[in-house]
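Dear all,

This email documents one entry for the complex benchmark we are building for the journal club exercise. For each entry we list the sequence lines for every component of the assembly. Then comes the predicted three-dimensional structure of the complex as a token string, followed by one or two observations. Please use this as the template for your own entries, and keep the labels exactly as they appear.
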Amino acid sequence: MREAMDPWTFVVASYAIGVGATLGMVVWSLISMRRAESRRDRARKP
Amino acid sequence: MHGFANPARFLRNARWLMPLCLGVGLGVAGLALIWGVMLAPAERLQGETVRIMYLHVPAAWLGMAGWMGIAGASLAELVWRHPLAAIAARACALPGTVFTAVCLLTGSLWGRPAWGTWWVWDGRLTSMLVLLFLYFGWIALSQASDSSAGAGENRAPAIFGLVGAVNVPIIHYSVIWWNSQHQPPSITLGKSAMSGDFLVPLLAAMLGFTLIFAGVVLARMRAILADQQAEARLRRKAFSQVEF
């Protein structure tokens, strides 16, 4: 007997992983950039 | 090329280029995914699951492009001692790893309804998994190397980056060289076996995700440069306070 599968379950799961990972990576990159640049600016102060 | 080697000049350009790439990339990728899910038709044989393609194909392209970025930067580091090359290679590693992992996961989710299995040990899937492990190894090696050393002083990651590039053509040609569950390439240079209904949103998604990749690489390069500059200043301050 053929297993019935809802294709949208796989589509939604793929988009959740792909979009979530991409947005997470963008946010993390921006936060780490801001943190590093403010650390550099603090180090510049005498 | 050495015109762009000056970190101050690079930072001047990256300050406007990075938000532009990220903003346009997120907009184009978002519209392409909405198009792919809501407007593009279902495929005759695969049905609705074909919509996974709009994420899976850009992720596969950028997983491989990330390693080619590492290899190109490694070559520039080894041959021309380009001061930003090692930083560019390190910046490519994170998005390359993320997109390779997304490609493997979305491919597995596509394979279950299309092939009836989550995973097969064929040439394409296995070589893509090897690419993910190469990224893990490269990141571990580059972090183990002394990040404060100048260009050309830590050559191990650069050599690894060049040697690992041999896997990229293996991934690309694996579906031609060996029998595979995976379909052969539908898009080649100058022609496509795909209908425009699928091709246009796919190309838009590839453009959008490529711009996001470029924006993340620029943000990572700014972060790594700022970290190195902060380290150098703190070291100079510490030396100046030492009494001999």
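Observations: The longest strand of chain B covers residues 187-188. Chain B has a mean pLDDT of 89.
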